[in-house]
Design goal:
The complex is a heterodimer. Chain A is mainly α. Chain A is 69% helix and 3% strand. Chain A has a three-stranded antiparallel beta sheet, with helices on one face. In chain A, strand 1 and strand 2 form a beta hairpin. Chain B is 38% helix and 19% strand. In chain B, the strands form seven sheets. In chain B, strands 2, 3, 4, 5, 10, 18 and 19 form a seven-stranded mixed beta sheet that branches. Chain B has a five-stranded antiparallel beta sheet with strand order 12-11-23-22-21, sandwiched between helices. A three-stranded antiparallel beta sheet of chain B has the order 1-8-9. The chains are: A mainly alpha, B alpha+beta. Bound molecules: zinc ion. Zinc ion binds at residues 335, 348, 352, 365-367 of chain B.
């Protein structure tokens, strides 16, 4: 490429990972539908794998189109696109369709549009654009509040739609803010709250308070901490005490029943009959499918649990079950490693950007994909509660594949033109 | 350009999260083997392949019992959508209530599995249903087999199959599973473990809706079923059917034995029924009808009904006399027309001179046998009547009276040859003598026998001193393997010479005695009539005999309840049976006799009336009759006990009247 003009070839590693995942996705969707013989309707669009194949071709075209754009156009359309997608998200409340209690689809006839998928992409662009503002230092209260608002607006809307998965994905933008200077304490506090929440649901609040008081006492006695930290800890300790008591109330009154069931399954708590038949059964079947794959797997197209519909939603949210069953532990680890390589490589690309726009954008993309992968795989193996969220590039679904393609294509485009930004 | 935390926490988060995922994957994919097992249990359905039950042939190689395909219609409750029950009703001849009741049961027990809703549907009905099967997506079917009886006869000897009880399942070492059928009576029960064969299994891959997706590992782990042993029985299929036809409209039994082998040639319990009624879909309903019938068609009369042997007992009594040398064979007796015991007279049929034992048998002289019996028991060589009676008992029991003969059909009764202890208990030790129990001499009183025992006693006489435990089964075959039931040869202690005298006497009975109606052209048929007194009504007509005299091929006993003299029904029927067996046809001049026997209906044949109805009608009738069920159980219980009770009652009465008031007439 013409280095003088500032063009670099697009990053091969990420492109390779992308292609690998998309092709594996089509193969896996095919595997979940393959009934043992190739019939005459093999190419019929009634099959999900054929539709996914078409989506992949459209995605490829989109990929090339985006590479053809000027990066300034991308930067220019960031805000308008954000506004448009926010409107789409709002329209879901009016035209949306409910599936399994989550209201996040717009039926366009040919296919169902899931605005929340595009919202992630648009939010990443808008946040990048905001950090690209020349005066931006991310220190003033106004800067902070604006950044929070860009993330918070779609987060609140998907939360209102009951889309817990997307909600968590937007929460992952905190990683981006952290990169840009936000204290890590916020993330640790989040982890701390989650831990306390789980403990509160599992054991008696008084025991938790007793343990924390003892811990607090021990820390003061040994005088390990300076006075400033002791003060903070004391506040945290008090907050914990109140929070502990309110968790059960919040759990039972704020969360919807199906969400409570999902958490109960993971915590191994007593389940309602309905949950046993539904969510616990699904999770158990998914674990059986993955577990039965063993070390080397049953071989491609030889999975039984996934192909014979024991695992629900195998082509979408539970596609990892099919991979785990047919490719075994080795295949599963390879897949996880491909994601890790892709994400770490993208992080590297982010750091070598010269503009805050590129850096923040790519960083956001990494956070989004990371959250998707971790939650999705974690849920199929019983590490995390069942949260309906697609596995990037693999799960069947046009909205998901297209929006992730936009994210990667834009990231690669920005990276290839990073030298052009001289400010 | 660098600003913020370049080495942000995201990198660490990615690595930590990836490690967590891989660790958890390692746990469930590598460390816990039970997921594999669970997956197998999920997907692989073990389908039982039922072995073909062993066929049963007659002695000439004709198939008497075979298997027929029927269908169980299954339904998976959780897949039901808009079930058209009206259509089901009309397709399968059933009613709404049944469907509702059954669906309720299935919902409670196995809603996620295909469960039989209609069992053992015949091929015709199934064919009609199959055309509409696609309209019932929750339904499927499985093939089962039921027994078919080619001659529509032999219900009593073959028995029937019924669904296993939990008790049987527990005892079967895992062979039986709920819903299986097991031989419950007859030889189906006795040889069940051989006839049933070994189940096979096929492993099928099914999806979450239990739909078939192909064979597991291409069927390489399937286990083929092994068919049961086939049985060649000693029965003569045509003789069996002929016997049942002769007994139509009569209550009673026929047992025919081949004396030299102990093989059962015919085994008729009447009223009988088409054994096909107790297979297939309406099995239960038909069973209830049979069960409630006042004439008790389910009672296995040849081995379970107990009759006084009447005069057929005299043949053995004569042999006992000769063996103990109580009187010579040519001892003369003048019959004054009865035998006086105290102030009671055992009547005879006239005043006649009896020159020898043959003549006594020929004329069935009661006073002769009373005298002989009295002299036996009161003989001076025995210290007391009890010792004399014991000796008499020993000899009589050698003929199989009062004991189980070990036939290969369950439920055989030992009947009663009263023992010394029995009388000691009834009358008190030393307080009884021959005259107290004089009725035994002519096969009355407390003596009770089964038709099988009567036939077997004749077989002993035909064999001149031994019997082989009667068996229905000749042998069982499976491929080249061969099995014979265990048989024992039992000898009597009586001299062969005496048998000749008695056999000559039995020949005279038919030639010129009480059973002239039983003469068969060209065959020397020997036999003895009997008329058993019946406290409940008209006397039972009995005949026992064998033929041909020179080389006995068949020994037979016929009992016709409430039919009067032995010569009236039992003797003609026995002679027709023997003629049929030995000559294959009935001679022209005896056809009138056959017709007469066919025509006579001593009981209104309600059963026959019921058979003429369609199964559907039968089923609906039985629903209407459900209320009567309680009573019928009482009734059956009563009948089972009644013989015993009436005996005890009679015995008690006798005790009071010191046994002198009995009036017995024998012919
Ligand atoms: Zn006389």
């Amino acid at each position: 490429m013409d280095n003088k003009r500032g063009y670099d070839p697009i990053d091969g590693t990420v492109l390779f990972c992308y292609l690998f995942l998309v092709i594996l996705g089509i193969m896996s969707v095919f595997a979940t539908e393959y009934n043992g013989s190739f019939s005459s309707s093999f190419f019929s669009l009634s099959h999900n794998y054929m539709r996914q194949f078409i989506f992949a071709i459209i995605s490829g075209l989109m990929f090339i189109t985006i590479l053809g754009f000027d990066r300034r156009i991308l930067q220019f359309i960031s805000y308008p696109m954000y506004a448009l997608v926010m409107l789409l998200l709002l329209s879901v409340f009016v035209f949306g369709e409910r599936t399994k209690g989550d209201q996040n689809w717009i039926n366009l006839g040919l296919f169902k549009l899931q605005p929340s998928e595009f919202a992630k992409f648009a939010t990443a662009m808008a946040l990048a654009k905001y950090f690209d503002t020349p005066s931006m230092r991310f220190v003033t209260r106004k800067e902070h509040l604006t950044a929070y608002a860009i993330i918070g607006l779609p987060l609140l809307m998907v939360a209102a739609q009951g889309d817990a998965g997307s909600c968590l994905v937007f929460a992952a933008f905190v990683f981006v803010l952290n990169r840009e200077g936000l204290s890590e304490l916020l993330i640790y506090l989040g982890l701390f709250i989650i831990t306390i929440s789980i403990l509160s649901l599992l054991i008696n609040p008084y025991i938790i308070i007793a343990i924390s008081l003892v811990l607090f006492g021990v820390l003061i006695y040994w005088n390990w901490l300076n006075k400033q930290l002791v003060k903070i800890l004391a506040i945290v300790m008090l907050g914990t005490c109140f929070y502990t008591f309110s968790v059960n109330y919040l759990f039972n009154n704020i969360l919807q029943k199906h969400q409570r069931d999902r958490i109960n399954v993971i915590l191994g708590k007593e389940l309602t009959k309905e949950a046993k038949r539904g969510i616990a059964y699904n999770l158990n079947q998914s674990k059986i499918a993955i577990g039965s794959g063993g070390i080397i797997g049953k071989g491609y197209l030889h999975g039984t649990q996934t192909r014979y519909n024991y695992v629900p939603e195998t082509s979408t949210d539970f596609i990892f079950s099919a991979i785990g069953e047919e490719w075994g532990f080795i295949g599963s680890v390879v897949l996880v490693m491909v994601y890790v390589i892709m994400l770490l490589r993208l992080l590297l690309l982010a750091e070598r950007q010269r503009s805050p726009y590129g850096r923040v954008y790519i960083y956001a993309v990494v956070a989004i994909i990371f959250m998707h992968v971790f939650i999705n795989i974690g849920m199929t193996i019983g590490l995390l509660p069942v949260i309906g969220i697609p596995l990037p590039f693999l799960s069947y679904g046009g909205s998901s594949l297209l929006s992730f393609t936009f994210m990667i294509a834009t990231a690669l485009k920005l990276d290839s033109e990073r030298r052009m930004t001289m400010r | 350009m660098l600003r913020g935390n370049e080495s942000g926490i995201l990198r660490k988060a990615i690595i930590v999260a990836a490690c967590m995922l891989i660790l958890k994957l390692f746990f469930i994919q590598v460390l816990s083997p039970n997921y594999k097992l669970k997956a197998r249990n999920n997907v692989i359905k073990k389908v039982t392949i039922y072995p073909s039950r062993g066929l049963i042939y007659d002695r000439k190689g004709k198939v008497m019992v075979y298997n027929d395909a029927v269908y169980d219609i299954l339904i998976q409750w959780n897949l039901i959508k808009d079930l058209d029950t009206l259509k089901l009703c009309s397709l399968l001849n059933t009613d709404m209530n049944y469907i509702r009741k059954r669906l309720d049961e299935i919902k409670r027990t196995t809603p996620n599995k295909p469960t039989p809703i209609f069992k053992l549907i015949d091929q015709q009905t199934f064919a009609r249903f199959q055309e509409h099967l696609f309209e019932f997506p929750a339904m499927s079917f499985q093939i089962r087999t039921v027994r078919k009886f080619a001659y529509k006869s032999g219900a009593a000897v073959f028995g029937y199959l019924s669904e296993v009880t939990q008790n049987t399942i527990d005892k079967s070492n895992g062979f039986y599973e709920p819903g299986d059928y097991v031989g419950t009576t007859g030889i189906e029960r006795f040889y069940d473990s051989l006839l049933r064969g070994t189940k096979g299994y096929s492993f099928q891959v099914v999806d979450v809706k239990n739909t078939y997706k192909g064979k597991y590992k291409d069927g390489s782990e399937d286990i083929a079923p092994i068919a049961g042993w086939d049985m060649v029985s000693g029965l003569d299929a045509e003789l069996q059917a002929y016997g049942e036809k002769l007994m139509e409209g009569k209550i009673g039994a026929i047992v025919a034995i081949e004396p030299s082998t102990g093989e059962i040639l015919a085994f008729v319990s009447s009223p009988s029924y088409d054994p096909n009624l107790l297979t297939g879909r309406y099995r239960r309903q038909n069973f209830n009808i049979l069960y409630r019938n006042a004439n008790h068609p389910l009672l296995n009369r040849p081995i379970q009904a107990m009759y006084p042997p009447g005069s057929t007992f005299k043949a053995a009594a004569a042999l006992a006399m000769l063996q103990e040398n109580i009187h010579e064979y040519n001892w003369q007796w003048f019959c004054p027309g009865g035998y006086r015991v105290g102030n009671h007279v055992v009547k005879c049929h006239g005043v006649h001179a009896i020159p020898d034992v043959q003549s006594a048998l020929q004329h069935s002289c009661n006073s002769y046998f009373c005298k002989v019996y009295n002299d036996f028991i009161m003989d001076s060589i025995f210290a007391s009547p009890a010792i004399g009676y014991q000796k008499w008992w020993d000899l009589m029991s050698e003929f199989g009276y009062g004991k189980k003969l070990g036939i290969d059909i369950n439920g055989e009764k030992r009947a009663n040859l009263p023992t010394v202890a029995y009388y000691n208990k009834a009358f008190g030790e030393g307080k009884w003598k021959a005259s107290t129990i004089i009725s035994n001499s002519i096969g009355q009183g407390e003596v009770l026998t089964t038709p099988l025992q009567i036939a077997n006693a004749m077989a002993i006489i035909a064999n001149k001193g031994f019997y082989i435990s009667p068996k229905v089964c000749q042998y069982l075959v499976k491929g080249k393997d061969y099995r014979k039931p265990k048989t024992e040869k039992h000898f009597t202690t009586i001299d062969t010479l005496y048998y000749r005298y008695v056999i000559d006497g039995l020949e005279k009975v038919v030639q010129s005695g009480t059973a002239r109606v039983a003469q068969i052209p060209g065959i020397n048929f020997c036999g003895k009539t009997g008329t058993a007194q019946n406290p409940h009504g008209k006397d039972h007509s009995i005949f026992a005999g064998f033929g041909p005299k020179e080389n006995p091929k068949i020994a037979i006993a016929v009992v016709v309840e409430n039919a009067g003299f032995g010569a009236s029904y039992a003797a003609p029927i026995a002679s027709l049976m023997v003629e049929k067996y030995l000559n294959d046809t009935i001679s022209k001049k005896r056809l009138y006799l056959q017709e007469r026997m066919f025509k006579v209906k001593l009981i209104p044949n309600e059963l026959e009336l019921e058979y003429q109805k369609t199964p559907q009608q039968l089923y609906l009738d039985s629903l209407a009759k459900v209320k009567a069920k309680k009573d019928s159980i009482k009734r059956v219980k009563y009948v089972q006990d009644s013989t015993k009770k009436s005996q005890e009652k009679a015995l008690e009465e006798k005790k009071k009247k010191d046994s002198t008031q009995l009036k017995t007439t024998q012919r």
